[in-house]
Design goal:
By secondary structure, this protein is mostly helical. It folds into two domains: 2-258, no CATH class; 305-601, no CATH class. The chain has helices at residues 2-32, 39-56, 61-85, 93-114, 140-161, 164-174, 176-181, 186-212, 216-220, 222-232, 238-258, 268-283, 305-325, 329-346, 348-354, 362-375, 383-403, 408-426, 454-477, 479-489, 491-496, 501-527, 537-550, 555-574, 577-593, 599-616, 631-637, and strands spanning 130-133, 136-139, 439-440, 445-446, 449-450, 529-530. A two-stranded antiparallel sheet has the order 1-2. Strands 3-6 form a two-stranded antiparallel ribbon. A two-stranded antiparallel sheet has the order 4-5. Mean pLDDT is 81; it is low at 287-297 and 620-648.
Length: 648
């Protein structure tokens, strides 16, 4: 009985911290319709600031808490709203997700740069205060967390339901112009909601730091647990959000205490909020088909089959020449890693660039391909590439059945939950990679030759990348590619015409997962060993961001994104301090280019068309459209706006 009381108290404490974080998410979403993926990262940074003030600078605890929660955090939230989130008004939900993920990566980079990795501890608020309940002991910090969770829930309910300013904050989303006519100031109200949300994130981070510790990723992942509680309340109901957070905390505590944890169940307690989130998202009502077309959608030009073949041959030859003339073995290996990342990122082109579905789990499907190679074909059989890709494609098809009926925010949350579940329950299992372990993988042999040299394997990856890219472009030029674009533009119109959208979406997700799985098999062979650390959720998020920064609608854009992601470990190996700087650059790039899925590649296309127009000067008549230039390419060349589709 005493153990049950202790587990219950600990569950209420953990659930209380989840409730505070989830309440901040609900507040910002209710008042701005922006789901702040960076909510946990804000709490993480503010926990570090609290440590800096209390431990490093020696300020009193009460003063440090006051400065962080009442001054620094709300000011930061208001600045984020003013310079990043306000520009997202009226944008598609996929755009806001990319920008907030970029903010999260940026904040992780800032924390690593300002506070390099080191052992840091934060003392308890009430180290000598205890309350005995039977033989169970409840600390003063635990009582404080539970009390603050209840207080936050009551105050937010009163603010949003009874207070005039709270009602006005909710009205900002419904009709900003009408609210302004009644004398309110929508921008100030939006800034106020983000300031309060940032303060709640800081409060949750400070309350949890004494138990979790000052860890960049653990504190940031706090928000995944908050996702589950917030989604249970449909991002609007604070009562359900609070109840869901407490239930999650209790479930984690009871599983930790009463379920025998061994083998595949080792990762079950931390996976409970993620499993809860996945089930909630799957059981949500099906999203209604969106009517009409999102204004300003356009894509980069699609090259003809002849040009695609020429570009592919030139690419492989160029990679071979560069590796032979300019690179040593270590640099060739890094080049191969970048191309493997580019191949995994290529899976996002049909799914996100053409279909408008934002997936945050490309490395998870790559991990499935790597598991197949490491466990079934560890000695370099070419059949491992095929079976690994097919296994990832099969899992993608199964996952798509419950998820692809959703769009926008809930689809992205579903892929986050799937990636985290695979990381905690599957990749850590003994039959996969094993907890914290790795599996050896031999490099592939072709035609009786073992591709053991770095240059030979690099050429193999380059050839596979060129072939897959040619296949993706061929699909885009064909009927299925046109159907994808039509479905992205107006699902309701496609449904009215009797097109089978379900089969189209399943095939799309299957294709994307298969490409990522193929990339995972080549990645594992290049490294000659692979493990669960290679395929975490935090591996997928920066890759998705860099694909968007490079241009997720084009092959060249995702290739650029993959090569940029390869540079992070290279720079970190030269200087640990550069790791945080690279994260900062990735996040800043996503903040600046997140609204343009054509990314940096768009500027290269525009420069090419400008150069082509210079060559055409002096010729009679207007310049004709190139053979490969579609209507979308023509619209893009003339500078029309672009954005991802898929609003819920």
């Amino acid at each position: 009985m005493n153990a049950f009381i202790a587990y219950t108290v600990f569950g209420f404490v953990t659930g209380g911290a989840y409730a505070i974080a989830a309440s901040g998410l609900v507040l910002t979403y209710t008042t701005s319709r922006i789901f702040n993926v960076a909510h946990g990262a804000i709490g993480m940074v503010m926990a570090f600031v609290f440590w800096q003030l209390e431990v490093k600078s020696g300020l009193p605890t009460w003063l440090s808490v006051f400065l962080v929660i009442c001054v620094i955090a709300p000011l930061f939230g208001a600045l984020v709203e003013r310079f990043a989130m306000r520009r997202l008004a009226g944008q598609d939900v996929s755009v806001s997700l990319v920008v907030t993920i970029g903010l999260m990566v940026l904040l992780i980079g800032v924390a690593q740069q300002v506070w390099p990795p080191a052992a840091r501890t934060v003392p308890a608020f009430f180290p000598n205060s205890y309350v005995h309940l039977g033989s169970a002991t409840i600390t003063g910090d635990q009582i404080l967390t539970i009390a603050l969770a209840g207080l936050v829930a009551v105050l937010l309910y009163v603010l949003l339901s009874r207070a005039r300013v709270g009602v006005a904050m909710r009205a900002v989303v419904d009709n900003t112009d009408l609210l302004a006519l009644h004398g309110a100031r929508p921008n100030r109200l939006s800034g106020l909601s983000w300031a309060i949300g940032s303060s709640l994130a800081a409060l949750a981070g400070i309350l949890l730091v004494t138990t979790i510790g000052l860890d960049y990723y653990e504190l940031t992942l706090l928000v995944v647990s908050a996702y589950a509680a917030a989604v249970l309340g449909r991002l609007q109901n604070l009562t359900l959000t609070f109840v869901g957070a407490i239930v999650l905390g209790l479930a984690q505590s009871y599983v930790q205490g009463y379920v025998p944890l061994s083998g595949a169940l080792n990762g079950l307690p931390p996976a409970i909020p993620v499993l809860f989130l996945f089930l909630i998202v799957v059981l949500l009502p099906q999203a209604q088909l969106r009517i009409g077309q999102i204004k300003g959608i356009s894509s980069v030009p699609v090259p003809s089959a002849r040009r695609t073949t020429g570009f592919g041959i030139a690419f492989v030859v160029g990679v071979g020449l560069i590796s032979a003339v300019m690179l040593d073995d270590a640099q060739t290996f890094n080049f191969g890693i970048g191309l493997a990342y580019a191949l995994i990122a290529l899976s996002l082109v049909p799914l996100t660039g053409y279909g408008g579905y934002l997936s945050l789990a490309p490395f998870t499907f790559a991990g499935i391909g790597a598991v197949v190679v490491a466990r079934i074909f560890p000695h370099g059989s070419p059949l491992g590439l095929v079976v690994g890709a097919l296994a990832a494609a099969a899992v993608g098809a199964v996952v798509s059945l419950p998820l692809l009926r959703l769009r926008g925010l809930y689809l992205a949350l579903g892929t986050i939950a799937f990636a985290d579940l695979m990381d905690k329950l599957v990749f850590q299992a003994s039959w996969a990679f094993g907890y914290g372990g790795s599996r050896p993988v031999d490099r592939i042999g072709l035609f009786g030759m073992q591709l053991n040299s770095e240059r030979d394997y690099l050429l193999l990856i380059a050839v596979v990348f060129a072939l897959v890219a040619a296949g993706v472009l061929a699909i885009r030029r064909g009927p299925y590619g046109r159907l994808l674009v039509a479905m992205r533009d107006s699902p309701a119109a496609c449904g009215t015409l009797g097109l089978d959208l379900t089969r189209t979406r399943v095939l799309l997700f299957t294709l994307s997962a298969g490409i990522a799985g193929l990339g995972g098999t080549l990645y594992a062979g290049l490294r000659t060993s692979t493990g669960p650390a290679d395929f975490t959720l935090f591996s997928s998020l920066p890759l998705v961001l860099l694909a968007v920064v490079g241009g997720v609608t084009s092959i060249s854009g995702v290739a650029l994104g993959g090569m940029l992601w390869m540079l992070l470990p290279v720079l970190q190996s030269k200087s640990q301090s550069l790791g945080g700087l690279v994260f900062m650059l990735i996040g800043a790039g996503a903040l600046l280019l997140g609204r343009n899925p054509n990314g940096l590649a768009s500027y290269a296309f525009l420069a090419g068309r400008w150069f082509e127009s210079l060559l055409r000067r002096g010729r009679p008549g207007p310049p004709a459209l190139a053979e490969e230039e579609t209507d979308e390419g023509f619209a893009f060349a003339h500078g029309e706006g672009v954005q991802l589709s898929g609003s819920s």
